[in-house]
Amino acid sequence: MLFFIFAGLIACAGKPVSASCPIEIIPPRVVVRYGDPISVNCSSPSNQIEGMGWESPYEGVPLTQGVSFLPLQIKSLKAWELEPKCYINFNSGDQCLESLSVTVYRKADSVSMTPPSKTGHMVEGKNYRMQCDIANVAPARNLSVYWFKGNEILRNESFDKESNLSPVNLSSVLNLTAHRGDNGSHIRCEAWLNLGPAGPNLVLRSKSHDVTVLYPPAFVKPEKENVTLIAGGRISLNCTATGNPMPSYSWQLSHVIQEENKNQDENQPTLTISYPGTYNCTVSNTQGTKTKYFTVTGAERNYTTLAAMIGVFLTLAALLFLGGYFFVTQDGTFSFCKGSYIRGQPTSSGAI
Ligand SMILES: *[C@@H]1O[C@H](CO)[C@@H](O)[C@H](O)[C@H]1NC(C)=O
Ligand SMILES: *[C@@H]1O[C@H](CO)[C@@H](O)[C@H](O)[C@H]1NC(C)=O
Ligand SMILES: *[C@@H]1O[C@H](CO)[C@@H](O)[C@H](O)[C@H]1NC(C)=O
Ligand SMILES: *[C@@H]1O[C@H](CO)[C@@H](O)[C@H](O)[C@H]1NC(C)=O
C-alpha cells in the first residue's frame, strides 16, 4: 500500500517507479558541461534490498550491502558518451537496473559567418551563398542554426540526425538572391544549443553582416510625363531616381533651351524650365542607365480665357449694335431709357 502511494507521488514528480522494478534515480536526467561535476542518487522504496551499485565506466560504485540509497558522484565529468546504470539486488534474488540519461555539452568556441562576396556587396538578382561555421560544439543533435535578417528568421537548420556526441565543427548554408529592398539590412546566424528544461539554453551569435545591394536606377515617378506650362510661368521637372550607387543625372536640352538654362546645373534631379518642348533626362549608375521623357506643352488655359474674353466682347458689341439699330429706327433718336436690360450696361457701351 505504502509503495503504491510512493509510486504515485513519483509519477507526479517525473519518472515513475515501475512496480516490477522499484528503482528511482534523482535527478533522472542530467545535463552537464564537459568537465563539470554531477551528483545523482539511486534509491528504492523497497525494504527488501540486499545490495546496490552503480555500473559506470567512469567512477562506478561497486555492489554495496546494507544501504537503501546510493549516490553517484563524479567530480569532473570528462567523457562525451556515458550512461551509468544503478542496479539493486533484492532479497528475493531479483535484480533491477535503471539507466541515468546524461547529456554532456560543450559551448561552441565560435560562431562565424562567411560574407556573401569578397567585394562586400551584392548585385540585385544574383544568387549568393553565405556560410555559418560553428566550431567545436557538442552534442550536434541538440544544435539548431537560425539565420536572421534583422528580426526576421530566414532559415533554420537542425542537426538532430547527427549521432556524434563529441565536439564537431558544423556549418549551415544560406542561399539568397539579392533584392534592392535588402540593402541596408543586417544578416547574422545564431547557434542554439537546446538542452531542454534540465539544462541551459545556450545561444551564440555571429557578427552581423551589413548588406549592400547594388541595383540600377528606377524613377520615382513615371518614365514619361506630360507637363503643362502656363505662359510666362516656370515649372520644375522632377527626374528623381533611386539606385545604388546613387545615380547621376544629365539633361538633354536643345541649343535654344540650353541658352535659357545656362545658369542651371544640368546634373541635378530637377530642372526648372520656362519654355515648352521635349526634355530628356538620363540617369545612370554602375548598374545601368535609364532615360525619362518630359513633354512640356504651352498652357491652353490662357488661350481659352483670352478667347472667352474676346467672345464676351463681341457679344456685347453685337447687342449694343442691335439695340442701337432698333431704338434708332423706332424713335429716330438714341434712347437708352427704353429697354430696362440695356440700362444695366451704360459703362460697357461707354467703353465701346
Ligand atoms: C538519496 O535518497 C534517499 C531516499 O530518497 C534520501 O534519504 C537521501 O537523503 C538521498 N541522498 C542524497 C545524497 O541525496
Ligand atoms: C574543427 O576546426 C578546428 C579549426 O579548423 C580544428 O582545429 C578542429 O580539429 C576541428 N574539429 C573537428 C572535430 O573536426
Ligand atoms: C544601402 O545601404 C547602405 C548601408 O549598408 C546605405 O549606406 C546606403 O545609403 C543604402 N543605399 C540605398 C540606395 O538605399
Ligand atoms: C537533444 O536532442 C535529442 C535529439 O533531438 C533529443 O532527443 C534530446 O531530448 C535533446 N536533449 C535535451 C537535453 O534536450
Describe the protein's architecture and organization.
This protein has 352 residues and is α+β, with helices and mostly antiparallel strands. The protein has 4 domains: 2-105, Immunoglobulins (Immunoglobulin-like); 110-211, Sandwich (Immunoglobulin-like); 216-298, Immunoglobulin-like, CATH 2.60.40.10; 314-340, no CATH class. The chain has 5 helices and 26 strands. The chain has helices at residues 2-13, 255-260, 300-331, 340-343, 346-351; strands at 24-26, 29-33, 38-43, 49-55, 61-65, 69-74, 85-90, 95-99, 101-105, 110-114, 122-123, 127-137, 143-149, 152-158, 168-177, 186-194, 201-205, 209-210, 213-219, 224-229, 235-238, 241-244, 248-252, 270-273, 277-285, 288-298. The strands form 8 sheets. Strands 13, 14, 16, 17 and 18 form a 5-stranded antiparallel β-sheet that branches. Strands 5-4-7-8 form a 4-stranded antiparallel β-sheet, with no helix packed on it. The longest helix is centred in the C-terminal third of the chain and has 32 residues, at 300-331. The protein is rod-shaped. It starts with a helix and ends with a helix. 21% of the residues are buried. Residues 1-15 and 331-352 have low confidence and may be disordered. Bound molecules: 2-acetamido-2-deoxy-beta-D-glucopyranose (4 copies). One 2-acetamido-2-deoxy-beta-D-glucopyranose is lined by residues 135-136, 167-169.
